[in-house]
Design goal:
alpha/beta, Helicase, Ruva Protein, domain 3, 2 domains, four-stranded parallel beta sheet, globular
Length: 215
C-alpha cells in the first residue's frame, strides 16, 4: 500500500507533473534512495508547500527544488552522500524575512564553501518585499527563494542551527551547535528598518562565515 500523502483538494491536476519530478529525482538519487522513497518525498513536499502557497503557478517547480534539497540533506545526515561542507540552517517563524536574509548573506560570504538552508515554523506565502529589495541593494538576489516549512531532515543535516524568534519549535539533536539570535522581525518595518536588520545580520554572518571557513 502506498504511503504517499493525498494531494490537497483542487491540486490533483499536478499529479502527472509530480510523477515526472519523482522520476527525474530518482535518477539523481539512484543507489542512494529507492524510487518509492523519492516519490514520497516529492508528494510530501508538494503538500507542505501547497498549504501556504497563494499563487499555484510555480508550485511544482519549487516542489522539485524543495524535495531535492531535503533528499540531499537526508543523504548527508545519514552519511550516504556527505557534502564535505559545513551545513548551516537558519530558522524563523515565517521564513520570509530574517532567516532568508541570513541565508542569502551566508551564501554570499561562503562563496560556495558552506551549504546553507532556511526554514520557517509557520511559513508565509511569500518573501517580504522590503527584504527582497534591501538585499538587492547589496547585490544579493532572493527572487528565486521561497518560504519553506521546517522539516526534520534539514535539522539533522545541519552542523549549525540558528533560530530567530521561533521559540522551541526546532528539534534538538546532540552534536550540533545551536544559537538563538535576538534580531528584529522585519515583517512590520519600513525600508529603513529592514535595512537596519540587514546590517545587523551582516555583522553576525561575517563573523560566522569566518569561523566556519577557518575550520
Amino acid at each position: 500500500m502506498s504511503t504517499r500523502p493525498n494531494p490537497m483538494p483542487g491540486l490533483i491536476n499536478d499529479d502527472h507533473v509530480l510523477h515526472r519530478i519523482s522520476g527525474e529525482l530518482a535518477g539523481k538519487f539512484d543507489g542512494v534512495f529507492s524510487p518509492e522513497m523519492v516519490d514520497r518525498y516529492v508528494f510530501e513536499s508538494y503538500t507542505s508547500l501547497a498549504r501556504t502557497a497563494k499563487i499555484k503557478t510555480y508550485l511544482t517547480s519549487i516542489t522539485k527544488h524543495f524535495a531535492e534539497d531535503r533528499l540531499n540533506a537526508l543523504a548527508h545526515a545519514q552519511g550516504i552522500r556527505p557534502s564535505g561542507k559545513a551545513e548551516v540552517l537558519f530558522v524563523c517563524v515565517q521564513n520570509a524575512g530574517r532567516s532568508q536574509m541570513a541565508a542569502g548573506l551566508l551564501r554570499h560570504y561562503g562563496e560556495g564553501r558552506i551549504n546553507v538552508r532556511s526554514a520557517g515554523s509557520l511559513p508565509a506565502e511569500r518573501l517580504n518585499a522590503h527584504v527582497v529589495d534591501s538585499m538587492k541593494d547589496i547585490g544579493i538576489d532572493l527572487d528565486a527563494d521561497f518560504p519553506k516549512p521546517l522539516t526534520d531532515d534539514v535539522v539533522r543535516a545541519a552542523d549549525v542551527v540558528i533560530t530567530m524568534g521561533c521559540g522551541d519549535t526546532c528539534p534538538i539533536y546532540p552534536g550540533k551547535r545551536y544559537e538563538d539570535w535576538q534580531v528584529e522581525d522585519p515583517a512590520d518595518l519600513d525600508p529603513a528598518g529592514v535595512q537596519r536588520v540587514r546590517n545587523d545580520l551582516d555583522k553576525r554572518i561575517r563573523k560566522l562565515a569566518a569561523e566556519l571557513l577557518a575550520r
